[in-house]
Amino acid sequence: MPDNSNIDPSHLETLDRDLGRLSTLELATGYVSRPLMGLGLALMFVVFAALVAALIFGQADNRLIVVVAAAFGAYMALNIGANDVANNMGPAVGANAMSMGVAIVIAATFESAGALLAGGDVVSTIAKGIIAPESMGTSGAFVSAMMAALLASALWVNVATWIGAPVSTTHSVVGGVMGAGIAAAGFGAVGWGQVSAIAASWVISPVLGGLVAAGFLWFIKANIIYRDDKIAAARKWVPVLVGFMAGAFSSYLALKGLKKIVSIEMGNAILIGIVVAVLVWLIMIPIIRRQSASLENRNKSLKVLFGIPLIVSAALLSFAHGANDVANAVGPLAAIVQASATGDFTHAIEIPLWVMVIGALGISFGLFLFGPKLIRMVGNQITKLNPMRAFCVALSAAVTVIAASWLGLPVSSTHIAVGGVFGVGFFREWDTERRMRKAKEKMPGLPPIAPEERRRRKLVRRSHFITIVAAWVVTVPAAAALSAAIFLVIEGVGG
């Protein structure tokens, strides 16, 4: 056995320092390489989508155009997964109802299922009146406009994800189509009535989502949390709330998520929701009774009762999102494919299966590679969420979309969900102030709260609020300006 008694202690200290430096270098290398690995995998997926398009179109004359468009569509799908999906999963993760890994698996599964099973309705970004396709003149100009719209909207969503702002990908695509249409055919090509309705949704969506979420939270606080016997109140009202959630999501999916499988009118969708709500309410009564049997009479115990309903609601939101918003990624791509192959760009555009697969896979990859940043921001950094508050946000998303559809109001699911988070946070601020005023009325001798302490007690981070609202406001004009510039470049190169 070697004798270490004669080793100079300073040599050991030097060795320890060197090992420490190596360990630090290893950690730093891993930290730097993780984003690069994500970018590398994303680039591989974009190349994969382009190769699929090249194989499908073989030696066709339009192959190069479709290959480039497929790469742009894959890039857009990655960005939708990185940004939009956070709105569905963020509240559940922030409330600790599920881990980040579980959330990503559930979201990727249900987003893909929604896209492939219930997505693929005719492309609506053109047909809804954003621009008049016939104003494009030629199929070549139309293809250039759709290419510009696709790339511009993807770039804008990428920028929004980078700054940590959840934005509407639908609005991004609308802005892209509008900007390219103006550059190609002038301001007369744009359906300004539709654009005005979309601009109105900037205000309508978050305000409605926030008010509905705050209303549900008020109901839970008044009827469960502030009761003396919280467990007895929960046994009465949690089955009702879960049943209402199930009914709302049934109507939501019937209206928004199953259009390809079967067309359901509003009245029938609401009737389906009522039937499902009653059945789930009856099923949940004995389940909640068993779950609450050993719970203590305190607020923390109530979180257990909302965990599973919250996970289910997040999954259903992901399914409906995949069914509806995959067209944002692949709609312009499908339009390019049809216009390039047939020259027809004025009629409804069907989305081919291979295009839908690119959209579904791209959303899943984008969520897996880049989604955690926005999930953490929505779930943790705007306001503090628990299962009850997150449940209110998820329920608000379904109820608000149904109400808006019934009233004919234009809304954005992204704005509704994030507005719900803001609504919950601002309601808690208001409720805290109200209770403090009541306490002061009962005890007039209490000292006033200092302004610094009052600011510290704000439950919604104003910096995130300002950043997100600003990103919402500039999404359509920013995407439009970017798209117009890209269209002029494409036309200049092509010319």
Pick out its properties.
phosphate transport; globular; Phos_transporter; single chain; transmembrane helix; membrane; 495 residues; mainly alpha; 16 helices; Phosphate transporter; 80% helix
Distance between the termini: 82 Å
Shape: globular
Number of structural units classed as domains: 1
Question: Helical region count?
Answer: 16
| Poorly predicted parts | none
* Total strands: 0
Report on this model:
With 495 residues, the chain is mostly helical. It has one domain (41-442, 449-494). It is 80% helix and 0% strand. The protein is built from 16 helices and no strands. It has helices at 9-57, 63-83, 86-94, 100-118, 124-127, 139-163, 169-185, 192-225, 230-257, 266-291, 299-342, 353-381, 387-407, 413-442, 451-456, 462-494. α1 packs antiparallel against α12 (353-381) and α8 (192-225) runs antiparallel to α9 (230-257). The longest helix is centred in the first third of the chain and has 49 residues, at 9-57. The model has no long low-confidence stretch (mean pLDDT 82).
Question: Secondary structure elements and their pairing?
Answer:
Blueprint: H1 9-57, H2 63-83, H3 86-94, H4 100-118, H5 124-127, H6 139-163, H7 169-185, H8 192-225, H9 230-257, H10 266-291, H11 299-342, H12 353-381, H13 387-407, H14 413-442, H15 451-456, H16 462-494
Helix pairs in contact: 1-2, 1-12, 2-6, 2-11, 2-12, 3-4, 3-12, 3-13, 4-11, 4-12, 6-7, 6-11, 6-16, 7-16, 8-9, 8-13, 8-14, 9-10, 9-11, 9-13, 11-12, 11-13, 13-14
